[in-house]
Design a protein that fits this description.
The chain has 11 helices and 8 strands. The chain is of the alpha/beta class.
Length: 273
């Protein structure tokens, strides 16, 4: 098998639908015949296993601490996806730096070659573990909404990525968008600011619509692509899965230079970062 497409999904701000995107894109990709691994990178707050109704015996904390192997901690989810679940209530894990995460990163690189697509559901914010996991991937997908707080945090995330993981390209998905036109406007607002101050213009990967059937699927702890395959959100998740599989890589641009412009104010709200 060729090298897997390793993709970290970030948001900066929590609550923008990042985990829903990861879970549903994973299931949609698996339904095409791809081998898919999901790593719950919100290390101290388990989300993916809860969203999919899975019951872990081991978690990423056990892998990091050497209690079990990476493979022993894996769960089999819908459509045969593999899930490495996060721990629950471990406030220390998100602050771990690369040396403390070696117990996860070494087997992560060893096993990912067995998959076609690896999705890392990174935690909110820009803590050390989030950036370390992003740097371990070959691509970042940044999930945003049209809320000023989401755009502000997305810009802050781009700023840290430019400094800490400059070689990793970034694409943007706009969630809860009323239309593609509205989503492209949101992307353009973020891109103008990031291009001006960071010399970065992330690519537009697509949008996800508001969909009441997605909320119903969450309540039933099921992937909407499995429960309602013809729903608007399901169709978009399937399209994103096709885009993210290795044969369709079209990653966005990253900066050609980084300088004192990193310290400029953020125009969304008139505040400084």
């Amino acid at each position: 098998m060729s090298e897997a497409s390793r993709i970290a999904v970030l948001s900066g701000k929590g609550g923008v639908g990042k985990t829903n995107l990861v879970a549903n894109v994973a299931v949609a990709a698996s339904e095409t015949g791809a081998k898919v691994l999901v790593v719950d990178g919100d290390l101290g707050l388990a989300n993916v296993d809860v969203l999919l109704g899975l019951a872990p015996r081991y978690t990423v904390a056990d892998v990091i601490e050497g209690t079990c192997s990476f493979e022993e901690a894996l769960l089999v989810g819908p459509s045969g996806i593999h899930v490495l679940p996060a721990a629950s209530g471990r406030s220390d894990l998100p602050s771990f730096r690369p040396d403390r995460l070696a117990g996860l990163l070494i087997p992560f690189f060893e096993v990912t070659g067995r998959y076609d697509l690896v999705l890392v559901d990174a935690g909110a914010g820009v803590g050390p573990a989030v950036i370390t996991l992003a740097a371990a991937c070959e691509r970042v997908v940044l999930v945003v909404t049209d809320e000023p707080t989401s755009l502000t945090d997305a810009y802050a995330t781009l700023k840290v990525l430019c400094r800490e993981a400059p070689s990793v390209p970034v694409d943007v998905v706009v969630n809860l968008a009323a239309s593609d036109r509205v989503a492209r406007d949101v992307h353009e607002r973020l891109s103008r600011v990031s291009e001006r101050f960071l010399s970065v213009r992330p690519a537009y990967l697509g949008h996800l619509p508001r969909d009441p059937r997605l909320a119903k699927a969450v309540g039933r702890q099921r992937a909407v692509v499995e429960l309602h395959p013809t729903a608007p959100s399901s169709r978009r998740f399937a399209e994103l899965a096709r885009e993210l599989l290795p044969s369709r890589r079209t990653a966005g641009a990253m900066p050609t230079s980084r300088d004192s412009r990193l310290e400029h104010p953020l125009p969304f709200t008139g505040t400084r970062t």
